[in-house]
Specification:
9 helices, 3-stranded parallel beta sheet, 11 strands, 14% strand, TIM Barrel, alpha/beta, binds zinc ion
Length: 259
């Protein structure tokens, strides 16, 4: 049974046509067929896709939040699919890469915003905030917000930290700089709408099995616990090794595993 007043917030990256990854990391790229299947599962469960931005002031038990990080060009297709399903989503983009190969253009973002999609900040550059000085962190938050608001004529008040990495009490910094909330990579469900400034998300990867997706949408308790333990183990590995070493080790392990 779904817990009352909890929202499942999904985190996507690229959503690509079969065999066309382009510049997207294949591990994070979901296929269009997978995406449509997932939208179908949500509709079958009597739920609808929605943006975090629309749910912040007005929680809806019948909503599943869809978020997308990195501004991959394929997100324009995903936005249309969400629109066709009668919903919307949040698109967290890096302002430094807008219009560069593999990424959404300003024009595409303008169209998406006009169609009711929520366009939000993933920083100016894709830099891990816990590697930066407090001044640099503020720059990432301010510059991206100002650019998006100025060029798209929209309000930007959600932030997703690149790689989910953030310094301690980061949500307070974000709120001070005009953001309403942070969509992190912490695993869990979104409880306590309105008060929660650090919104957990569940990453949908290329190899996310349909059964697992269904358990997340159903908000299965033991599945959530398992995912949280896994995330805690990964996070402590990052803390112990530091970001650069952790990335090196992860790449090495993936190579060993033949991926
Ligand atoms: Zn990212």
């Amino acid at each position: 049974m779904r817990a009352a007043q909890s929202t499942t917030v999904l985190m996507y990256h690229a959503v690509v046509a079969a065999g066309e990854h382009g510049l997207a990391d294949p591990r994070y790229a979901v296929s269009r067929a997978q995406f449509l299947h997932q939208l179908g599962d949500i509709a079958a469960a009597g739920l609808r896709p929605a943006s975090v931005a629309s749910l912040l002031p007005q929680p809806d038990r019948a909503a599943v939040a869809f978020t997308f990080d990195d501004g991959h060009e394929s997100n324009a297709w995903a936005a249309q699919a969400l629109l066709d399903a009668g919903g919307s989503g949040d698109f967290f983009v890096n302002t430094a890469t807008i219009g560069t190969p593999g990424h959404l253009s300003w024009e595409a973002l303008r169209d998406m915003a006009a169609a009711g999609m929520s366009i939000q900040s993933h920083g100016h550059h894709h830099r891990y905030l816990d590697d930066l000085t407090p001044f640099e962190v503020e720059q990432e938050l301010q510059r991206s917000k100002a650019l998006l608001e100025d060029r798209l004529g929209i309000r930007v008040d959600l932030f997703a930290p690149p790689g989910g990495r953030m310094p301690a009490s980061f949500d307070r910094t974000a709120v001070r700089l005009g953001y309403r909330a942070v969509c992190s990579s912490r695993v869990g469900l979104w409880h306590n709408h309105g008060a929660a400034r650090d919104i957990p998300r569940l990453a949908i990867l290329a190899d996310t099995a349909p059964a697992q997706f269904a358990r997340w949408v159903r908000q299965d308790g033991s599945e959530m616990l398992q995912q949280r333990l896994r995330y805690a183990a990964l996070a402590s590995g990052k803390r112990l090794l530091g970001n650069a070493n952790y990335e090196r080790m992860r790449r090495g392990l993936l190579r060993l595993a033949g991926r």
